[in-house]
Design brief:
Layout (H helix, E strand, L loop, with lengths): L28 H7 L1 H6 L5 H12 L5 H16 L2 H5 L2 H11 L4 E7 L7 E8 L1 H10 L3 E8 L7 E8 L5 E9 L4 H15 L8 E4 L5 H8 L4 E4 L1 H8 L6 H12 L3 H14 L1 H8 L23 H9 L8 H25 L6 H15 L1
Parallel strand pairs: 3-6, 6-7
Antiparallel strand pairs: 1-2, 2-5, 3-4, 4-5
Helix pairs in contact: 1-4, 3-4, 8-9, 11-12, 12-13
């Protein structure tokens, strides 16, 4: 038989007793990335758990979480491009934005420019429409906050968000920095103040969560601006030592107090419960967190930094993308949202905005009963 191209079968067992297996090593991350590329392109927010379930339905094969993660990483590389390569194009991106969107601010900071290769540090973006819309149509109130990037390159996104006439969020500026500290916040606020603020922040109000380095940066850049602290974050720290229903009610009553007499009464209630709790709150200047002590020029009694938290929730889909893809995602989102708001306003009939009508109706109902 060795001299012929034939195969000799010596035994054959046609009856199998082994069980079918749903595990197959041949199904690699490369194969999954190629097979499901177009699916991911149209379902970019597809979770890894749903990915596993889809593979099981299509191929009857169980794949591990790690293999799905590798496959998704390969697909994102194809769809969004190489993050490392995009860092080499940030200067061109900023220059194009300034050229084709006249009046916009796009500023890039790099290290080692004299000794190539340069190292990217920061980028700041403020579109011309955002500047004009905020200065001409919004109250002089800005919420500032930061959130972490989720991609392979570490960093922080810093944002500044205002309120429009209908009490909706109005994104004004955003930046990517290497770390959240006094220096990065000072740089961001200087760029922001140059775009939308008067000298030293006069007439402006800033709402923050008392982030690391932000308070000092506000004092240095906009010393004449009013600064407010998010009451929810004060409560989150306060309740770690002084939790409970009585503390909660007294704290929020003090926050919402519209007169000094009411505020003092609620603070006395906290002092009766615990002197240490009263001393903890008394250290925080009252003009930063209680409604009765707020200045009136911004015409807003806002107590929470919901503006930035809402915008940060939107940015969740952009925070894991490469730098230029991320900047373009934010720019397109802001432009699309602004256009939708403008078109909706053109169809609206009435002297007052919908939110104002709703609030006046609520106030009238409250006054009736």
């Amino acid at each position: 038989m060795r001299t012929y191209e034939n195969i000799q079968i010596k035994s054959m067992r046609l009856k199998h007793t082994c069980q079918l297996s749903s595990y197959n090593r041949k199904v690699s991350s490369e194969y999954l990335a190629e097979k499901y590329l177009e699916w991911f392109r149209t379902n970019i927010d597809w979770s890894l758990k749903k990915f596993q379930e889809q593979v099981l339905r299509d191929l009857n094969v169980h794949v591990s979480y790690g293999k799905c993660w590798l496959a998704r990483s390969r697909e994102k590389l194809v769809i969004f491009g190489n993050g490392k390569d995009q860092y080499g194009k940030v200067w061109d991106y900023a220059a194009s934005l300034r050229k084709y969107n006249s009046g916009s601010t796009a500023f890039v900071v790099c290290d080692n420019i004299e000794r190539p290769p340069p190292i990217f540090r920061r980028i700041y973006i403020c579109l011309a429409a955002c500047k004009e819309g905020f200065t001409k149509g919004c109250r002089p109130l800005l919420g500032v906050d930061g959130c972490h990037l989720k991609g392979p390159y570490p960093g922080m996104i810093l944002v500044a968000v205002g309120k429009d006439e209908n009490n909706n969020i109005f994104p004004v500026a955003w930046a990517v920095v290497e770390v959240e500290n006094t220096d990065s916040w000072r740089w961001f606020l200087e760029m922001l103040a140059n775009d939308v603020c008067k000298p030293e922040g006069e007439g402006m109000t800033f709402m923050s969560d008392r982030q690391k380095g932000l308070i000092d940066a506000l004092r240095m850049v906009v010393p004449k601006a009013e600064t407010r602290y998010c009451a929810r974050h004060i409560w989150a720290n306060f309740k770690l030592s002084y939790g409970g229903k009585l503390y909660k009610e007294s704290f929020w009553n003090a926050v919402r107090a519209t007169t000094k007499a009411d505020f003092d009464g609620h603070m006395e209630g906290i002092k009766f419960l615990s002197y240490d709790a009263w001393a903890y709150l008394n250290v925080i200047p009252v003009e930063h967190w209680s409604r009765h002590a707020f200045q009136t020029h911004c015409k807003s009694n806002m107590l929470l930094n919901n503006l930035c938290e809402t915008f940060n929730a939107v940015l969740k889909d952009a925070r894991d993308k490469p730098i230029l893809t991320q900047m373009e995602w934010i720019r397109r989102y802001v432009m699309k949202r602004t256009c939708e708001k403008r078109e909706g306003l053109q169809k609206y009939e009435g002297r007052l905005m919908p939110y104002v009508n709703k609030y006046l109706k609520w106030a009238a109902d409250e006054a009736t009963y």
